[in-house]
Amino acid sequence: MENPITKTLMYSNISGEKYDEMDKLALEVLLDYGAVTFPLDIAGLAKKIGINLIPYSSLSFQKIQKLVEKNSTYKGVTCPRRDSNGSLRFDTFYNDIDIMPLAQRFTIAHEIKHVVCGDCFKKTLTEEDEVLAEHFARSLLAPQCMVIYQNEKDRNAISKHYEISLPSAENCYNAVENRKIKFGVDFLFQFEKDFIEERNKIL
Ligand SMILES: [Zn+2]
């Protein structure tokens, strides 16, 4: 499994604005669907978006083999389709056989990016689509503004509170610490302040 930090550095040709867009998009999705409590009910959110979650364990042996042998579908994949009423639906298949439950949450969050950005309509996804989906997943499951607002103490607290794996929590913790050094301990961007304000109205 690739280290997400290394991967981000490898594709450093992706502009900072694109990562910022992912942060904004993640908060918009959370607000739009009223999913503002953490740990995030990722299955509930997926359902509201029109995503049908299908674990690999429910598929035939042949289908599972096909999915796990390819890098691009090892963790999960999303296929759009029309239901009998003509409404757009999304089937998100996710690997629940080789992947731990916390990482499955991350896969589903990653696939949500491919749905909300329309990536899943493309024949093949670019490296940029994938890197940004990883970033989006982190922002969706554990928004940095929430980690700052709730004054999370360490990676263990973040892992527990947001139900993300320890490596993801470590990544989040380091990103927040770097932010604090750069901008100050309580600093939030305007879109993050707006999110917390709207969130507090819903709660
Ligand atoms: Zn992907």
Helices, strands, pairings?
Blueprint: H1 4-10, H2 16-32, H3 42-49, E1 51-55, H4 61-69, E2 76-82, E3 88-94, H5 101-116, H6 127-141, H7 144-149, H8 155-162, H9 166-183, H10 190-202
Parallel strand pairs: 1-3
Antiparallel strand pairs: 2-3
Bound molecules: zinc ion.
Question: Could you characterize what this model shows?
Answer:
There is one protein chain. The protein has 203 residues and is mainly alpha-helical. The protein has one domain. The protein has ten helices and three strands. A hairpin with a 5-residue loop joins strand 2 (76-82) and strand 3. Helix 2 runs parallel beside helix 10 (190-202), helix 3 runs parallel beside helix 5 (101-116) and helix 8 crosses helix 9 (166-183). The chain is globular, with a radius of gyration of 17 Å. 31% of the residues are buried. It binds zinc ion (ZN). The site of zinc ion has 5 residues, from helix 5 and helix 6. Zinc ion binds next to helix 5 and helix 6.
Structural class: mainly alpha
**How much helix is in the residues?**
55-70%
Low-confidence stretches: 1-8
Rg calculated over all Cα atoms = 17 Å
Sheet with the most strands: spatial strand order: 1-3-2
Helix tally equals 10
Order of helices and strands: HHHEHEEHHHHHH
Chemical compounds bound to the protein:
zinc ion
Mean pLDDT: 93
Structural domain count = 1
Q: Please state the overall shape, judged from the principal axes of the Cα atoms.
A: globular
